[in-house]
């Protein structure tokens, strides 16, 4: 049975994620108490279910600390992967303000302090409780991510093979911050920028005129080769370490031209490496481009 555990910071999009799993054919359970997880899995197994997604968060308090050890037991029989949703504190505070919801841990933290807890104190307490899970999970930072983009990224994740390492190549713009889920970050802002060409400015790294411009720059080719060499050198170590996901983030100023082009180039290169196909899966993301409002016909 393939089990996906969905967890993360309150307000970061767990409900959106769970609906995406449900749309993909998973049997989904929300807000499950940790002590009931083994019973749920046994029931699902007896019913012949193959794909299960369970959302668990920190509102149950200290019992979340029992989860890492429990997951190790479950992994002896089933495939288990963890999706951790995160967002920066300012974004979370804004989201709670807009929805006028209380943070789930506000009451618990208040009782602990014998005084009213601020939302920031509740968020930090939640981060502390969930940190052991975050360290073994695939994380997605939803700070600058619309709901439709999060759903699309999750659907892409679910296309992967159940075993091995997933190499995620992601472009982003430093203007909106470094993705918190990134394991390796390459800053390509030093490269010639198509933004300063009035014809190229409205285009993206997917467009042929931008590609032609960047291919003519020796520094771009050199950067591409250096990044490829670094990934090829260290990827076997990440695989040997038993990692499920490795996110390589390429950043330029706006996340529109240079980083997009280089991620496309890396994707094309690694897709042709037949020796890697049995050990890794590839996923390509463009944070700023993917986050644009989709147009309707």
Record keyword descriptors for this entry.
297 residues; alpha/beta; Rossmann fold; five-stranded parallel β-sheet; globular
Report on this structure:
- The chain has 297 residues and is an alpha/beta fold.
- It folds into 2 domains: 2-157, Rossmann fold (3-Layer(aba) Sandwich), CATH 3.40.50; 165-290, no CATH class.
- The protein is built from 11 helices and 9 strands.
- It has helices at 14-23, 37-46, 67-75, 89-99, 106-113, 119-134, 147-157, 208-215, 218-240, 258-271, 287-290; strands at residues 2-8, 27-29, 51-55, 79-86, 138-141, 165-173, 184-187, 245-252, 280-286.
- The strands form 2 sheets. The protein has a 5-stranded parallel sheet with strand order 2-3-1-4-5, sandwiched between helices. The protein has a 4-stranded parallel sheet with strand order 7-8-6-9, sandwiched between helices.
- Strand 2, helix 2 and strand 3 form a beta-alpha-beta unit.
- It is globular and about 60 Å long.
- The relative contact order is 0.14.
- The mean pLDDT is 89.
Task: Show the helix and strand layout.
Layout: E1 2-8, H1 14-23, E2 27-29, H2 37-46, E3 51-55, H3 67-75, E4 79-86, H4 89-99, H5 106-113, H6 119-134, E5 138-141, H7 147-157, E6 165-173, E7 184-187, H8 208-215, H9 218-240, E8 245-252, H10 258-271, E9 280-286, H11 287-290
Parallel strand pairs: 1-3, 1-4, 2-3, 4-5, 6-8, 6-9, 7-8
Helix pairs in contact: 1-7, 9-10
Low-confidence stretches: none
Tell me what portion of residues adopts beta-strand conformation: 15-25%
Number of domains: 2
CATH architecture of the largest domain: 3-Layer(aba) Sandwich
Computed Rg: 21 Å
Biggest sheet, open or closed, and with what strands and sense?
5 strands, parallel
Number of helical regions: 11
What is the strand tally? 9
Question: How would you describe the shape?
Answer: globular
């Amino acid at each position: 049975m393939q089990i996906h555990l969905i967890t993360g910071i309150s307000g970061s999009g767990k409900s959106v994620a769970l609906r995406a799993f449900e749309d993909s054919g998973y049997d989904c359970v929300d807000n499950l108490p940790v002590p009931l997880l083994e019973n749920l899995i046994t029931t699902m197994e007896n019913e012949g279910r193959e794909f299960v997604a369970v959302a668990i968060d920190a509102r149950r308090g200290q019992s979340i600390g029992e989860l890492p050890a429990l997951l190790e037991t479950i992994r002896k029989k089933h495939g288990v992967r963890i999706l951790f949703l995160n967002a920066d504190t300012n974004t979370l505070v804004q989201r709670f303000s807009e929805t006028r919801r209380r943070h789930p841990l506000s009451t618990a933290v208040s009782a602990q302090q014998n005084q009213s807890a601020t939302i920031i104190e509740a968020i930090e307490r939640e981060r502390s409780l969930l940190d052991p899970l975050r360290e073994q999970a695939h994380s997605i930072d939803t700070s600058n991510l619309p709901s439709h983009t999060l759903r699309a990224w999750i659907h892409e994740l679910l296309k992967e093979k159940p075993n091995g390492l997933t190499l995620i190549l992601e472009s982003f713009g430093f203007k909106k911050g470094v993705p918190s889920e990134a394991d390796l970050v390459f800053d390509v802002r030093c490269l010639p920028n198509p933004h300063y060409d009035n014809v190229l400015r409205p285009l993206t790294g997917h467009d042929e005129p931008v590609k032609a411009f960047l291919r003519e720059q020796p520094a771009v080719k050199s950067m591409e080769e250096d990044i490829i060499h670094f990934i090829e050198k260290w990827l076997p170590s990440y695989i040997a370490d038993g990692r499920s996901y490795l996110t390589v983030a390429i950043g330029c100023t706006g996340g529109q031209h240079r980083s997009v082009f280089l991620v496309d180039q890396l994707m094309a290169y690694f897709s042709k490496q037949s020796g890697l196909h049995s050990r890794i899966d590839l996923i390509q993301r463009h944070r700023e481009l993917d986050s644009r409002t989709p147009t309707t016909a």
